[in-house]
Design goal:
The structure is a homodimer. By secondary structure, chain A is α/β, with parallel strands linked by helices. Chain A has twelve helices and eight strands.
DNA sequence: CGTCCTATTTGTCCAGGACAAAACGTCAAG
DNA sequence: CTTGACGTTTTGTCCTGGACAAATAGGACG
């Protein structure tokens, strides 16, 4: 067999499915059943890995593994585009503009995309740029990925280029000592940065002091960072990919570990499905930021 | 017991030690032995997690787990600062300047650090800035972390701020169609971005067309990205944290999957320990980039 | 149509065993 | 004193097969 083969750890990296899950699926559903190498270890073919990636994507759309893994190949492919391509996005007035930007990424035209974004930024100003361009565009990219219209590398390119535009805009803002001091980051297993940058942009415009700590900060380090920076607020981002199970537990633990005077803001698509929690403010939309900021200022002006 | 507790998955996230390793250490070395919760599942105390983090750090310095886990607490702490703090860095002429920038991070003075970096960038130009400031500073930050002088959140802050400076400088470079087309990224489990940005800066200055795809690109997506962007070169970064075992296997697989006409450049501290591989060019130092670029141009000018 | 309850699905955890690759130490030769 | 070959120990990853709780679907009932 000349097909290159993946061991179970490589499949975990390629698909994001844990080794435990891969073995369990094999035991329970009879797929994937990999070859074994000389040492009796699993060795997956490229075709199996590709199919697993498809299954994973369909699961993110809401399908259940038990059904998917029992299906023959053709039926699986027929499921691929779930979302009616014109419906969800019709709510936005300037959809055609967004689709244009999307098409530039799809055409792999980095320069063109950067230019288009810079132009919109200059035209609308940072606040509207974030609210009306970056936020909906990021949602569209997520949808396109779920529908199979975007590959991982296209999503990565979009993310990387957009981060640059936002960071550039942020650097142009005037510095200075502001309040409150907001620590921006995410917990381990949450690598998405764009949401944090959007929040940083809006908060900076409103005169808050943002301390960007990147993504994937372990809980104990987050607590120490909070002390060291004398932060007033900790803002965390949870994307829809973040395992729902962990959110509640992590936030509870964090709330317990942080001083009561420190406010926790939790935002991102992942928070839509999470239950509200005492001592943690849930911000499901960027539009909720200004009022949260006002609340803090009112409570601390006395 | 009022101490908040971590389940085994949380410990994996906090420490970076896999569940398998945690169970194996418990079985073999008798540490850590966690409590059990109502369902018989492991529940680690904060003290155990802190100690595991210390052990992990000492292992990254070259100590062996068998010894470390047998030691009493005090002895472990005595090991902490291994590196003579003044020796390794004495090789650089302007060490004091670097230490100053480091001190700004240590003092959590983001504004001051950004200013210092911007100033050096303006003074030296992008090329010398990368070679004489960013590269050695990043190494120093890595060393400081190994010595316990830097916390994770301080390293994250350094990384985040420095990324901004570099990206800003990159955005200021003139665009245009250049050759070769270089795809920049890293494989899954390698989240470090700074090395890639340094490479991008130097290559862009030399007139190459850089396609930044961020970090952690699955192998199969990398192959597809390469086709889609008609890349001439794929440049990969491996930090010293990247599991050595994977490097050879992944590069071999990638080499097989990519067309022969596509050159692979592999760089970063992780490549210092890796064996050379047919069809993959190893670049252990930024200074090797220009000649690699020249080689490509000579080979493709005919 | 909404709410409660039950059955099924599904992911994560556990124990304990096996083994190969890496690291170490030893010894001999240059 | 350094270098290289070789046996031993250490160490991480993989394996099997079992258990269980949380999430979800499906159905009954108000």
């Amino acid at each position: 067999m000349n097909t290159p083969c993946f061991n179970i750890a490589a499949v975990e990296r390629e698909t994001g499915l844990s080794k435990d899950v891969l073995r369990m699926w094999e035991r329970r559903y009879g797929f994937p059943v990999p070859e074994r190498d000389g040492h009796g270890e699993r060795s997956y073919s490229i075709a199996q890995v590709e199919r697993l990636r498809l299954v994973k994507r369909l699961m993110d759309q809401g399908h259940r593994p038990g059904k998917l893994l029992a299906m023959p190949e053709e039926e699986l492919l027929a499921l691929a585009p779930r979302r009616p391509s014109s419906e969800g996005s019709a709510a936005f007035p300037d959809t055609s503009d967004l689709e244009e930007a999307l098409a530039l990424i799809k055409r792999h035209d980095s320069q063109g995309f950067l230019q288009a974004m810079q132009q919109r930024l200059a035209r609308d100003g940072l606040m509207h740029f974030v609210q009306d361009t970056v936020a909906p565009l990021t949602r569209r990219v997520g949808d396109a990925w779920e529908d199979g219209d975007f590959a991982v590398f296209e999503e990565h390119l979009y993310t990387e280029l957009t981060k640059r535009v936002l960071r550039q805009a942020l650097a142009a803002l005037p510095p200075g000592r502001r309040t409150p001091r907001v620590l921006l980051t995410s917990l381990p297993d949450e690598p998405h940065m764009l949401g944090l940058l959007m929040v940083e942009a809006l908060l900076s415009l409103e005169g808050a002091e943002c301390i960007p700590l990147g993504t994937e900060m372990p809980l104990l380090d987050l607590v120490r960072a909070c002390e060291a920076h004398r932060a007033d607020v900790v803002a965390l981002s949870f994307s829809s990919v973040f395992p729902l199970r962990q959110i509640g537990e992590a936030l509870r633990q964090l709330r317990q570990a942080l001083p009561a005077g420190v406010v926790i803001w939790a935002g991102g698509a992942g928070m839509l499905r999470a239950q509200p929690l005492e001592g943690v403010q849930t911000l499901t939309d960027l539009a909720m930021l200004p009022s949260a900021l006002n609340d803090w200022r009112l409570a601390h002006s006395a």
